[in-house]
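Incident log, support desk, overnight shift.

02:14 A customer reports that sequence design results differ from what the structure should imply. Their input is reproduced verbatim below. On-call engineer (initials T.W.) acknowledged and began investigating.
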């Protein structure tokens, strides 16, 4: 079940770029962070060990994705967040 959850996170994080809320820079970072996260999750699922490292990686992944999204939105357009909140 954890593996299904982790596999769904990459397309969900890329949806910000696909829908136009984030730039291609965010998409590149999302693929890099998501790829590493998937690697750790698949490795720990196949070996049935290393869940502590998978947990730590999931915390790092969520922090990195949120930081990349906030940084991307603040650098590219100051009104994007306001527009996204009021018009969608």
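02:41 Re-run completed on a clean worker. Output:
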């Amino acid at each position: 079940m954890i593996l299904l959850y982790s596999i769904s996170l990459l397309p969900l994080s890329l949806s910000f770029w696909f829908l136009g809320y984030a730039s291609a820079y965010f998409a590149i970072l999302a693929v890099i962070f998501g790829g590493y996260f998937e690697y750790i999750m698949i490795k720990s699922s196949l070996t049935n060990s290393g869940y502590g490292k998978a947990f730590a990686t999931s915390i790092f992944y969520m922090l990195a994705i949120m930081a990349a999204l906030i940084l991307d939105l603040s650098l590219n357009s100051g009104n994007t967040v306001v527009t996204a909140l009021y018009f969608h």
